[in-house]
Design goal:
Elements: E1 4-11, H1 20-33, E2 39-41, H2 56-59, H3 66-78, E3 81-90, E4 104-111, E5 117-122, H4 133-136, E6 145-151, E7 154-160, H5 169-177, E8 182-186, H6 194-208, E9 211-215, E10 220-221, E11 224-225, E12 231-233, E13 239-242, E14 248-255, H7 257-265
Parallel strand pairs: 1-2, 2-3, 7-8, 8-9
Antiparallel strand pairs: 1-14, 3-4, 4-5, 6-7, 9-12, 10-11, 12-13
Helix pairs in contact: 1-3
Protein name: Carbon-nitrogen family hydrolase
Domain CN hydrolase: 5-256
Keywords: Hydrolase
């Protein structure tokens, strides 16, 4: 039996006039209307706003807040894994607040088909060159590789990375060393650099011989036009499917056995000099 994973990447568009609560309602309804799939994926900070940094501290929530609770409910109802994209995570009362003492992170959350939080990943590389994320958010310090199982003998090891992380190949290499055959990358990547997004997504897939799912944001918010072009890239670095710039859903079926076939046919990873 072949090991396949059906995926739906939800490229959410938003502006400045929709509240977080309205967007959560809209996106949860949208996911429930999708055809049955094994994994639904959302963009980085789709609820809190990728570049809405002036409101992050007021809209931030804990992992048991509204965004994740609502998506967990949907995952349970549909019996589907949901990669929630990321949220601005606020530390629980009394929990460690990180070196800046802010207690806020850009955290990706993978929810199982049973509606449980399965894996979290706090974005390691903060974007903004001293402003925005590095000023307001703590940096993540731990890699995350999750084992997903969606039916008998259907499994994959998936590494988590977020947006700007795409520019740091050593992170992806480390995920591969921990067994990642697939990388899940939600983003709020701007239109002016969309060619970097496309080039680097293919490079990360090709050099690690792993599937890469890039789920970006659409629309314009906080004065920044988002790039869209969510895509599915194969372990051979080929773009299997790609969206345009508008709000849309990208669906596809990943042949997970392709990872071992590509690695056996062209065993470049074995020639590394450490
Ligand atoms: O690296 C880039 O060009 C965009 C990164 C970014 O927008 C982010 O990490 O939020």
């Amino acid at each position: 039996m072949t090991n396949t994973l059906d995926v739906a990447l939800v490229q959410v568009a938003y502006g400045d006039d929709e509240s977080v609560a309205q967007r959560v309602d809209r996106v949860c309804e949208w996911i429930q209307d999708l055809d049955q799939t094994d994994l639904v994926m959302l963009p980085e900070l789709w609820a809190h706003g990728g570049f809405a940094s002036s409101t992050w501290s007021s809209t931030a929530e804990t992992l048991s807040g509204v965004v994740i609770s609502r998506l967990a409910e949907v995952a349970r109802k549909l019996s589907t894994w949901i990669h929630a994209g990321s949220i601005i995570e606020r530390a629980e009362d009394g929990a460690a607040r990180g070196p800046l003492g802010r207690g806020l992170w850009n955290t990706s959350v993978l929810i199982s088909a049973a509606g449980e939080i399965h894996t979290t990943y706090r974005k390691i590389h903060r974007f903004g060159f001293g402003e925005g994320e590095p000023q307001l958010l703590e940096a993540g310090e731990e890699l995350a590789v999750a084992s997903l199982e969606w039916s008998a003998n259907q499994t994959v090891r998936a590494g988590l990375a977020t947006c700007y992380d795409l520019r740091f190949p050593e992170l992806f290499r480390s995920l591969g060393e921990q067994g990642a055959e697939l990388v899940l990358l939600p983003a709020a990547w701007p239109m002016p650099r969309v060619e970097h997004w496309r080039l680097l997504g293919q490079a990360r897939a090709l050099e690690n011989q792993a599937w890469v799912l890039q789920c970006n944001t659409a629309g314009t918010h906080s004065g920044v036009q988002m790039g869209g072009h969510s895509r599915i890239v194969s372990p051979a670095g080929e773009v299997v499917a790609e969206l345009g710039a508008d709000e849309d859903v990208l669906t596809g079926t990943l042949d997970l056995d392709l990872v071992s076939r590509v690695r056996a046919e062209f065993p470049v990873l074995g020639d590394r000099r450490l």
